Give the backbone structure.
Amino acid sequence: MTKPPHLALIGAGITGTTLSIALTRCGISHTLYEQSPHATELGAGLGFGPNAARAMKIIDRELSEVFERVCTPRDLRGAGVTTTSSTTTTTKDCEEGNGTGDGEKGGKGEGGGEDGKKGKLWIEFLDGTSDVDVRELEPAFRVFARYPVGHGAVHRARWLEVLMRMVPEGVVKFGKRLEGIDQSGEKVVLRFEDGTKAEADAVVGCDGVKSKVREVLVGGGGMQGAKCGYSGKYAYRCMIPMQRAVEEIGRARASVSSLWMGHGRHILTFPVGRPGPDQLLNLVAFVTDSNESWPSQDARGFTLPATREDALHDFEQGGFSKTWGLFDLANDPLPSFYSGRILVIGDAAHASTPHHGSGAGFCMEDVAVLSCLLEEQTQDVNGDPTNGLEAVFAAFDASRRERDQWLVQSSRRAADLYEWRLPNTGKEYFEDMRKDIEERQAVCWGVDLDKVVLEAKADLRRRRGAEMKG
């Protein structure tokens, strides 16, 4: 057996640190390079659906257990109340299939409908153009998740701190901004802006929306997929102490994930963290831009300062410090997630808008599949491990690219649905909208990840066999 390979991971965000945890469990040598001088993430809410829960169990049992201890409870949240009026549905009602809500009409493993089986409330959709007081406003419709676990959320920056504590000491190298990659020799050589170099058998880019690895992979900044494009939407966002949110909109509404629909704009709120004095309400206000391009030319920042006047104009409220441009790869998808011994995963491979609440979950799926393939490969290496890694990357690409790129496209469509920009949307079509949303969320959440992993491993074995015969 040849010496196991050493991998270079680029980007110590949520995806990179989670992959490091997975590789540590598998006993795979690696170094994690991060351009920032220390671990850093934006202080926003991060949601994980049932698919992410399954992925975490595959990645590392301890990781899964830690997440369940810190995330928003995966039940109906709050004190068992899911709406605000005379048709209030209790936690018990919803879990027993009573009242309004969690039937089989959505199909494909997703809840929804009027008469169905058990489900966990995911979100309530409301008419954001209504004049009814927010404490009294009835949901236009609800979407449920018919799985053993529902949707959980964490504070992004705090979750990264938790992940970093699970990465072995000495694995992360901070202050390493990637400048270039050369894979022409026996080893892959990484060059950093501080003038240093490093070697590895392969590189995995986990460096997010503004990925340098992706740019190198496609052959330069002007090639297809090198840069993310402006989605035509921007957002304001903030985190509100839960107690203040309760005072403003009531506990019933603050404790439930809610989406206010409207013409060309929508607002999303959901609780973050465990109930208690530190719990927060994440608020994101989305706007469809009248401009086709983002005004900032700074490649390292997709944000602009937000003024009170901006927010008042868009939403008749203030309190936001920045305007966030939403960028993705919808218009310029990667033709492949790998080239030789360079691979991209997560947002680096399939940057998406957040309108399905599944971007982070798909990143976890990527990590689960890749780590299982790498573990399979290192347990039975025949011949040059470099060739084995290329087979791993090819199997990963075949397993993940179609699904990951579906999310990018579907997320854009979901936003236009929430903002009544598509045919058969708006107040007269709430039932049609509910069915559409449920079917798409079912694709996000209903994946049989164990089956996906088994199929990817079988594909890897076929590719390795072909290499040996060749």
